[in-house]
Design a protein that fits this description.
The complex is a heterodimer of chains A (about 140) and B (about 150). With about 140 residues, chain A is of the alpha+beta class. Chain A has two helices and five strands. The chains are: A alpha+beta (about 140), B alpha+beta (about 150).
Chain lengths: ~140, ~150
C-alpha cells in the first residue's frame, strides 16, 4: 500500500488533531454563586448593645430566621461553588472514559446574630470561607 | 498543502464555541416606591397586605417561657406557641447564567440573587421593624467579564 508523503508540518498537526479528538469535552470549569456578600461590617455589631433594628439597618434582611429557646437568630449566607474537572474519553475504540478527575469546593460566608427575647444581640459569629477558595 | 488546510478547518470546527445565556425569574418584583411609606408603629399589617399583596413567607411562631412571664424563679422550660404573624417576607429571585461550550473546554457561570423585604410586627399588628435589600442589581450580566 502506498502512503502519501507528508510534510514536517502536516504530521504534528494531524497528531495534535488526533489528540484533541481523543480529549473531547475534556475540561470543565464551573462557578456558581448564591446570595449576596455581607452588606455591612459585622464588627459594628455590639453584643449587649445592638438591637434587632440596628442589625437590620446594617445588614439588611437576613436569609433565614431561626428560633431558639433563648430568642431568634438571624442567618446571613453567601455561597460559592468552584468546580473543575477533566475527562479523557476514548470515543473511537472502546467508547469508555479513560480518565476522570473532578474537584469541587462549596464554601460559604456565614454570619449568625443571636438575640435575646428583648431583641438585643447576645451573640455573633462570622466566617468568610469563600476567601480561601483556590482559583481552580 | 491541502492536508494542512483540512487539518486547520477541522481544528477550527472542533474548537468552535457555543455560548449559552440563561435568565431566570421567580415571583414578581417588589414595588420599591411603596417602601418609604412604611412607618414603624403606625403602618398596620392589613396596610402592608394592601401595598405588597400576599407575602412569600409568614412566620407565626414565638418562643416563650411561661415561668418567666409569671415571674416564677428558676430555669423555665421554653415552649413554642403560635401567635399572630411576627413577620412577612417578600422576595423576588433572579438568576443569570452564562456558559461557553467548546469541544475541549467548557466554562459555566451562574449567579442567583434576590430582592428581599422583611417586615416585623408587634402584638398590635403594627410594623415594628423592616428592612429591604435589592441584591438583584448585583447580578453580573456577562458572567466573569462583568463580575
Amino acid at each position: 500500500m502506498h502512503l502519501p508523503n507528508r510534510t514536517p508540518i502536516q504530521t504534528p498537526a494531524l497528531v495534535l488533531l488526533a489528540l484533541l479528538v481523543q480529549l473531547c469535552s475534556g475540561c470543565t470549569i464551573t462557578r456558581l454563586y448564591g446570595g449576596a456578600q455581607f452588606r455591612g461590617d459585622p464588627a459594628e455589631i455590639r453584643e449587649g448593645q445592638s438591637t434587632r433594628s440596628d442589625v437590620l439597618k446594617l445588614l439588611g434582611p437576613p436569609d433565614a430566621i431561626e428560633h431558639q429557646v433563648w430568642g431568634d437568630a438571624f442567618v446571613y449566607r453567601y455561597r460559592q461553588i468552584n468546580s473543575a474537572s477533566i475527562t479523557i474519553d476514548d470515543f473511537f475504540f472502546t467508547g469508555q472514559t479513560i480518565f476522570s478527575f473532578e474537584r469541587t469546593f462549596d464554601n460559604s460566608d456565614t454570619l449568625i446574630v443571636l438575640f435575646d427575647f428583648d431583641g438585643i444581640v447576645n451573640g455573633i459569629a462570622a466566617d468568610r470561607d469563600t476567601d480561601e477558595m483556590p482559583l481552580l | 498543502m491541502i492536508h494542512l488546510r483540512l487539518v486547520l478547518v477541522l481544528l477550527a470546527s472542533a474548537l468552535l464555541p457555543a455560548c449559552f445565556i440563561v435568565r431566570g425569574h421567580q415571583d414578581r418584583p417588589i414595588n420599591q416606591d411603596l417602601i418609604p411609606t412604611i412607618q414603624r408603629g403606625v403602618t398596620t399589617k392589613n396596610q402592608i397586605l394592601e401595598m405588597f399583596g400576599p407575602p412569600q413567607a409568614v412566620d407565626g411562631r414565638e418562643i416563650v417561657a411561661a415561668g418567666d412571664l409569671l415571674g416564677v424563679p428558676g430555669d423555665h422550660r421554653r415552649v413554642e406557641q403560635l401567635v399572630a404573624a411576627r413577620y412577612f417576607r417578600y422576595a423576588y429571585y433572579r438568576a443569570n447564567g452564562w456558559a461557553l461550550i467548546t469541544f475541549v473546554f467548557n466554562y459555566v457561570d451562574a449567579d442567583i440573587k434576590s430582592d428581599n423585604l422583611i417586615i416585623f410586627f408587634d402584638g398590635n399588628d403594627l410594623v415594628q421593624d423592616y428592612a429591604f435589600a435589592k441584591d438583584t442589581e448585583l447580578l453580573p450580566r456577562f458572567g466573569p467579564l462583568s463580575r
